[in-house]
Amino acid sequence: QRIGVPREIFPLEKRVAAVPDTVEKLIKLGFQVAIESGAGDAAHFSDDAYRAVGADIIDSAAALWAGSDIVLKVRPPHGEEVALLRQGGTLISFIWPAQHPELMAQLTAKQATVLAIDCLPRTLSRAQKMDALTSTAGVSGYRAVIEAANAFGRYFNGQITAAGKVPPAKVFIAGAGVAGLAAIGTAANLGAIVRANDTRAEVADQVKSLGGEFVKVDYEEDGAGGGGYAKVMSEGFQAAQRAMYAQQAKDADIIITTALIPGKPAPKLITAEMVQSMKPGSVIVDMAAEQGGNCELTVPDQAVVRHGVTIIGYTDLPSRLAKQSSTLYATNLLRLTEELCKAKDGVAVVNMEDEAIRGLTVIKDGAVTWPAPPLKAA
Ligand code: NAD
After folding, report:
1. Nearest one of 59, 132, 55 to 93, comparing CA atoms
2. ipTM for the complex?
């Protein structure tokens, strides 16, 4: 079979779904691989680098899509891209089916088979090597700290110099999931004092092991919902959490927010008043900007200054580290393709008996197979 990798057309998107290293391995699995000319340019992978490992470089998007049995992508396809997908073709990409009913209908009409990498059952340990949500969130958490450091007018680490004593920066992280933990580790490595909070008490040890201090909300309620994710908290908890965040905001130089609740708008944790109480020159990076933001004053895709505080709402953090995020994403897709091609004969088989594959298959031969049934107890 032929695997095709188009150039991403979403604004600000710089990633690519295959890199030369993974293309080489896909070819060893028996596939032919075609790359749209320029697909890797923004992530610093040239056409020549793909050609050198045996890929065909195709000039037009239309020819690339038409010639591919399997298309590997990053962003959910736009309508004009779906139109190019071969009738009965296979697509592997981020899809977010709950947010994109129209896309699901278009793909169904194409009799497509669609593997949504965002629907991978993350609690299966066998599936971790394919977990693109985790690799992407890790890159974003790292980059959020780099963006904060870039906008902040001081060192992160404390220093004693001939010119005087410099105190370490204080960083507060709201939400300690995958992205938050990556931010904690990065900020601690730069030498900052790091504190973090999450509604799921189980993350406290992970925060500590990365060099952060876990700050508890003074209210007895655990935030663990289903599948390792968070739930919406009670009014009482939210009031107690606001009081604690108001204290942290006054003290922190940098706040990085990552709090999300599946299927709900991002919880508003940082009020305008808290921003006003921060020291001039402080920085907030709101990683939830695309889902409505954790801070009341966030403007998606922009860095704005409010009350002397820089508030960064970039929604393209993975593309701001495009080479790294592409390499990790492409490796996740390679691992998935290996699972689909155990015979190493260049033919992908979507085995619906396999729980990991079943979970992420959202359309099979034109029939919607999403949402998948719950996992059998491990
Ligand atoms: P996410 O992006 O949905 O949420 C980010 C974090 O925000 C979560 O830790 C959540 O608890 C927190 N949060 C939500 N509301 C909050 C609030 N009001 N105040 C403070 N924090 C709030 O989550 P994610 O990072 O994608 O993953 C969540 C968890 O899923 C992981 O931390 C992990 O435990 C689990 N997970 C498990 C596996 C596995 O078992 N193999 C793999 C990946 C993730």
Report:
1. 132
2. 0.94
Q: 35-50: per-residue pLDDT in tens?
A: 999 999 999 999 999 9
- Both tokens of 49, joined, read 């680098």
Best mutation site among 94, 199, 257 for ligand 1 pocket (most ligand atoms within 8 Å of CB): 199
- Residue 191: the pLDDT is 98
pLDDT band at 228 (very low <50, low <70, confident <90, very high): confident
Per-residue pLDDT at 378 exceeds 80: no
Residues framing ligand 1 (Cβ under 6 A): 122-123, 128, 131, 133-134, 137, 174-180, 197-200, 223, 228-230, 233, 258-262, 267, 269
110 vs 93: CA distance, rounded Å: 16
Whether the link from the prior residue into 371 is cis, omega within 30° of 0, is yes
Provide the pLDDT for residue 377: 63
Locate tokens 């998606």: which residue? 300
Q: Among 181, 200, 210, say which to mutate for ligand 1: greatest number of ligand atoms within 8 Å of CB.
A: 200
Give the chain's mean pLDDT: 97
Nearest protein CA to atom 8 of ligand 1, as residue: 177
CA of 213 to the centre of ligand 1 (A): 18
Nearest alpha-carbon partner for 357 in 376, 337, 378, 343? 337
Taking 60 as the threshold, does the pLDDT of residue 250 lie above it?
yes
| C-alpha–C-alpha distance, residues 86 and 94, integer Å | 18
Mutual orientation of helices 20-28 and 322-340 as an angle, nearest 10°?
10
CA of 8 relative to ligand 1 center, distance in Å: 28
Write phi, then psi, for 345 (nearest 5 degrees).
Answer: -115, 15
**Site of tokens 């089916």:** 97
Under a CB-based contact definition with an 8 Å cutoff, are residues 216 and 248 in contact?
Answer: no
